[in-house]
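User: Batch of two.

Assistant: Item 1 of 2:
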Amino acid sequence: MFTLLFAACTGGTKSVNSAENKKETQLPKKGVTAESIVPTKEVISAYLELKNALTKDDDKTAAQAAKSLVEAINVVDKASLSTEQSKVFTDIADDAKEHAEHIGSNAGNIKHQREHFETLSQEIYDLVKAGGSAGQKLYYDNCPMYNNGKGGNWLSDTKDIQNPYLGKEMPTCGSVKEELN
């Protein structure tokens, strides 16, 4: 069954690869297309998986998601991004990978993971603001109690607050600061 499904997908790809499709592949020069948003979509997906693990106080899944985030950042094709996205991505990529690597190597130390998640969240927010949300509606949330009242922000794909900083202790602490896309 898998082979049949794969063959059907392959066959569909070949039939789509017509003159019509060739015109579409020339569009990246004119604006954002599905091809230019796929790389950032993978980054955002891995980030959201990481955020969701932290909301559940699941340091092991958070570590795995952070490793996936590093991989997603590594495979982004900057040439497929808009000029603004590429500039922002270049500015944040190394720092974002460093923070994700720290989260990935610190299973068992969720406090340390959350410290790195705070800075990582700002970097991913900057990428999304540059147009990298892949057409997905996101919410920029804030927990005023995190870090001894200094607060912490994060991105979410749901309007309902699911706090990654306080986890199960205070899962709904926070508010939506901004709706993106």
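Item 2 of 2:
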Amino acid sequence: MSPPLRPTRPEPGSAPPGARKGGTRHDHIVEDIRSLIVDGRWPPGSQLPVETELAERYGVSRMTMNKALGQLARDGFLVRRKKSGTQVAQPRAESAVVAIVDIRDEVRRSGRAYRFHLLARRARPGREEDALLLGAAPGVGEVVWLQGLHLADDRPFCLETRLINPAIAEGAKAQDFTDLTPGGWLLGAVPWSVASHRVRAVNATAAEAKLLELAVGEACLEIVRRTQAAGEWVTGVRLLYPGSEHQLVANFGPEAGGGPGRG
């Protein structure tokens, strides 16, 4: 963990270090902190002092400091969490829009240590509420339902809620998924033929915010994925990422967009 950041308190009436002349003190603070992050002087994961201490050092009110930090968080430079305070954001993890990848690999590509924490797992009959993950309720058939938290450097990276069809994914009921992630096991054990994705922005509920260490209502990226094999559903999964730490990428040629020159 990097040592606490120590911005120099400006003289009363002056702009923070590195700020240009003109603009409000809010603008000066945002520009100064952004420069420190972009220049690498405040590296990813660095812990900022508490809001009141920063306000004192920059010679502004706590409200002004809060607004400046909030803007930097919305812009993706900072991550603000209830329990751990404010930190410099890690570089955003990337997922391909259509590829099915192991989240463990996503985290490791970003240079962070990966861990999966299984929150709950049980075999039960399918319910109407399962339609969110499967597109259609699985009727009376049995499902394996589980929820787990993917962590990067022991911090929440993604909340996973998954249904598995044990009639197709043989061996799913015997897996406890404490040492092997559900997605990793499925990729190696069950060939799939058709997959669908739904991607949207959502706001974290109180329960989700608590697990992801976010503020209630904070923006998240939701990916709902369904896979099939031989006309039968294999799995449905909802992946919920903190919006400030994740992005989707897609690479495609002119043939995918209707020809060259079309934006």
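The first helix runs from residue 25 to 38.
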